[in-house]
């Protein structure tokens, strides 16, 4: 609540722009790194020609792909959770408007130009 009241007066546009750039970079970079590392492990296993090592590498690759998908969609999941919490909080507490919380989330994650 205190943070929203502080942001009501306006914030420096560098903060939301940096936050959005960091989130977008991490949202793409981490899954790419995970998939590339999984492919490298699988390539080493294929070159080694050991069946047991190849099965382990395949399972690690599948796990890394799942982790990459989860990391890619974590921003959407967090936005959804915060919007649900904002709607629940806004109905109980008259000081906090659920629109403020939603606009703050949109500001930092989706569109920093609307701050």
Description:
There is one protein chain. With 115 residues, the protein is mostly helical. The chain has one domain. The chain has 4 helices and no strands. The chain has helices at residues 2-7, 14-48, 51-92, 98-110. Helix 2 packs antiparallel against helix 3 (51-92), helix 2 (14-48) packs across helix 4 and helix 3 (51-92) packs antiparallel against helix 4 (98-110). The radius of gyration is 21 Å and the shape is elongated.
List the helices and strands and how they pair.
Blueprint: H1 2-7, H2 14-48, H3 51-92, H4 98-110
Give a quick summary of the entry.
This protein has 115 residues and is mainly alpha-helical.
Task: Name its key features.
single chain; 115 residues; mainly alpha; 4 helices; 0% strand; elongated
């Amino acid at each position: 609540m205190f943070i929203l009241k502080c942001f009501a007066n306006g914030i420096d546009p560098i903060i939301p722009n940096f936050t959005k750039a960091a989130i977008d970079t991490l949202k793409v970079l981490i899954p790419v790194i995970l998939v590339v590392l999984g492919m490298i492990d699988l390539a080493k296993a294929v070159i080694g020609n050991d069946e047991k090592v190849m099965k382990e590498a395949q399972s690690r690759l599948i796990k890394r792909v799942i982790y990459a998908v989860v990391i890619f969609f974590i921003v959407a999941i967090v936005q959804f959770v915060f919007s649900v919490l904002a709607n629940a909080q806004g109905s109980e507490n008259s000081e906090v408007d659920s629109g403020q919380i939603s606009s703050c989330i949109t500001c930092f994650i989706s569109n920093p130009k609307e701050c």
